[in-house]
Amino acid sequence: MLAEPALTNIGIVLPEPGFHDALRELTRAHGTLLVIDETHTLSAGPGGMTQAEGLEPDLVTIGKAIAGGVPIGAYGMTEDVAERIMGAPDADLEDVGGIGGTLAGNALSLAAARATLGEVLTPEAHERMASLSERLAGGVQRTLAERGVPWHIVRLGARAEYRFRPQPPRTGAQAEAAGDPELDDFLHVFLMNRGVLLTPFHNMTLMCPATGESDVDRHDQAFAEALDALLGG
């Protein structure tokens, strides 16, 4: 069973309370390996949601965020799974893809990962980024409430997204139904013209180690101006 700990490609959809406990119980009952994919959810902090939520997968995967965007991938596993893999006589344990393979472990990707994890994405940096994301989410919530706009914002550590519905979606289908491409385009261009860059998909903000409180405040002001423009204020 391969699962993200929270949906992200359709916008952030956080799991229902008890979802991961039930998933782990079911997979263990049926002898199924559980793989948690933290490629996008590493924004939750060191160890991603696996560490933050105390999840117990058999394997975990992470992606290029650990190398500051340089192509790389890594995975971890329990001692039991590792012993089973190493004990398999036909196990393919070598990547022959050279520097082009995601898991090739070339010198550049390894050096980038070491620098990123050791000097950039430190626990202290994650804590500060999560605090800034919380500050941004609070500002968005106040602005929406003051103007009576029925949207919401949801956070996942250093990442936050606002969507066009009163309550956070519970499913990917609900998240997709809440989309509005023209409104997305308006917000992206409006904010970009005021020095705020959203991700090219959804309306996602992502704190980085260089983000400061002034950057968050700039977003708050630009977001309020965008709503005023939409409301004709």
Q: Which helices and strands appear, and what pairs or packs with what?
A:
Blueprint: E1 2-3, H1 19-29, E2 35-37, H2 48-52, E3 59-62, E4 74-77, H3 79-86, H4 107-120, H5 123-147, E5 152-156, E6 159-163, H6 172-177, H7 181-192, E7 204-206, H8 213-231
Parallel strand pairs: 1-2, 2-3
Antiparallel strand pairs: 3-4, 5-6, 6-7
Helix pairs in contact: 5-8
Question: pLDDT below 50 for ≥5 consecutive residues: which ranges?
Answer: none
Strand content: 5-15%
What is the helix content? 40-55%
Task: Write down the overall geometry.
Answer: globular
* Mean pLDDT score: 91
Would you state the CATH class of the largest domain? Alpha Beta
What count of structural domains? 2
Structural class: alpha/beta
What's the number of extended β-strand segments?
Answer: 7
CATH-level-4 superfamily name of the largest domain: Type I PLP-dependent aspartate aminotransferase-like (Major domain)
* Tally of DSSP helical segments: 8
Order of helices and strands: EHEHEEHHHEEHHEH
Measured on Cα atoms, how large is the radius of gyration? 20 Å
- Biggest sheet layout: 4 strands, mixed
CATH architecture of the largest domain: 3-Layer(aba) Sandwich
Question: Looking across the biggest beta sheet, what order are the strands in?
Answer: 1-2-3-4
User: In whole angstroms, how far apart are the ends?
Assistant: 50 Å
Annotated CATH topology of the largest domain: Aspartate Aminotransferase, domain 2
